[in-house]
Fold each of these.
Amino acid sequence: MRALALRPEDITEVEFSRSFRGYNEEEVREFLEEVATQVALLLEEREKVLQENRELRRKLSEQEEYLRKMQLQLEEWKKQVEVEKELARRESQMIVKEAQLRAQKIVDEALERKREIEAAYRGLFEKYRLFQIRFKSLLQTFIESIEKEGLSEEFREEKREEPQEKDEATEVVRFSLKDLHDEGRMSK
């Protein structure tokens, strides 16, 4: 029995020895068995290759489907990112607008407070001017009172002897001098 490593070109070149009735049947049978074995192996190998091919095509199809899904998902994510960007932009605009409104409110409140302070200042200044006028008047009355007291003792005695109506200005001065004197005690 000879070992056959069959290749297509070898099959046409196989030679059998001649026997009485043609080719040696034993050699032909052995050759056919070997060919059958080789064909069976080739068919098995072909089936394995076809099976691998089907499996690889299936995996390729799955990978292509997965890739298609990933591309669709990526497109969805891109759209979502754009939506999120737009929302963030709008939110930031709202925050800025709100901050501007709050800032304007603070400025308006500060201006209103300033106007109130200025009005209070004007009121205090007016009271101060009124106080100055009254104080000047009081001082003037006080000075006049002091000047009257500087008159001779005789004139005063005359006035005491004569019943006269009391001069209101003198009463105001006396009242004012008494008040000043009392205030001096209170502040001590």
Amino acid sequence: MPIDPHLLMAFTLTSLVAMVAPGPDMLFVLGCGMRGGARAGLLATAGVATSEAIHVAVAAAGLAALFEAAPTAFAVVRVVGAAYLVYLGVQMIRNRGEVALDERAGGAGMTGRQAFLRGLVTNLLNPKMVTFTIAFLPQFVNPELGGVWLQFAILGAVLIALEFLVDGTVGVLAGRIGGWLRVRRAARRRIDVATGGLFIGLGVRLAAER
């Protein structure tokens, strides 16, 4: 086996427990699902998962050492990511109640493409994800087995699968509930305000983290 089965089991259980606890990714997917429907929630998850695949590749290449060597780079990326989330939140509140498609066709306030790209960009602009990945994944890699890249790839695949299992489920369920609420104009406006406030809160939280 290209990876230690005991380490793989420990990694899977640890990752699952970490993902079940509500965090920025889950809250972001929840907001996308509520505003854009089940498809948007699932595609937001896909965006987050894609960025996680990139983070795993970065961790395997050791590029996260850049943040340790240049703390300013870490701070700049963190602030940019926080500002992006705040910007999204403000835009949602400003445009509350508006939909991208004709209301008679049941249009939603966030397209699948927007949800995917925002999930991708938001997670990519969170440098803590890079440092977390490079600190976390190597604990479950056994260099003596060889094929370190393959071990990283297997761990990354497990991480992405769990992302879809946990956050994907949250996004789809939020989309079902949001779809029922969006047929009511007042409820749709409240969803947009709540989602915007959620994104602003996530941005402030990211900026305040050390």
Amino acid sequence: MAHGHSDHHDAHHEHGHMHADHGSLKSYATGFILAVILTAIPFWLVMGKVFDKSSTTGFILLGFAAVQIVVHMVYFLHMNTKSEGGWSMLALLFTGMLVFIMMSGSLWVMYHLNHNMMPGMMHETETKPESISVMPMPATQSTPASSPLPAPDNMKTMPSMR
């Protein structure tokens, strides 16, 4: 009884090596329709200016983007908890966690560097010190008392340097 190459090959596939489902036409069509819907709704939200605040629109767009990523992974990349014994999903979760930590940490560091290195730039409505807001006197006037023209009421005079 000689074992042929095809017998060994067939027996190899019967040892519990489960291959991932490569999808069907129905699966791809469902994924495509969901992807189109998840693209059209955010486009309408932005072009129609549905929300007054741009930050609200941004957060909703990020939510739609996250859902679309999941749709692409499930319907086109065929990732689920059963493929490859769950290791692909575990690797995906680990990668997502690392990306979240790196992005949030980077944003946190950049915010605090900007806040601590340029504290005057953070608050645009900050009041200026009075010494900066005093208007300088014209060069022809030496002292307010010897001025031939009276000083306007809204102009602050500088003390003489005698």
Amino acid sequence: MAEDDIPAAARPRAEEVGVAPIGSGGGAALRFPASVLDARAVVEIGTGTGVSGLWLLRGMRSDGVLTTVDIEAEHQRLAKETFNDAGIPANRARTIAGAGLDVLPRLTDGHYDSVFCDGDKREYAAYLAEALRLLRPGGVVAFDNALWHDRVADPAQRDEETVAIRDLGRTIADNESLVPVLLPVGDGLLVAKKVWTPET
């Protein structure tokens, strides 16, 4: 899907600071569940320069708030530029500088419609555990780089990041409280819905 000038302009900034933003196809895939869910509250791990955050914000309801977490404050400054250029009101994007696993435990249980993970691949399993706590029933968690440059499907690839992503896929597939789909856009987007279960 073609991008407009705002996210396109954020991509060279990402290259300058050494981050790889989600592709336009992955961005469109993120925007879709945010729109279907009429998302009011979304968490993002890995702000980058605001490309994925902008796609999420454009799918969310007009009063929805994106909470985006990144260990690099400079990345978040650039993301704020992207959001501002796109006319996103400042109160719709809450940036928190810090490591994902330090910040996520401080967020409210069951409050979020969606969680998007694009941080440290070795921490994906821990992000999933936090996301399951943070998501409301019917909410959606998404992981970028689920194919990891085609390394995940190659059993000969045993580096730490590849193994972590491969294990995540198995964990999600085996979790009866999740309905998953692997979307072959960009470097792979693994999306899963948290099933609603009645109170017992």
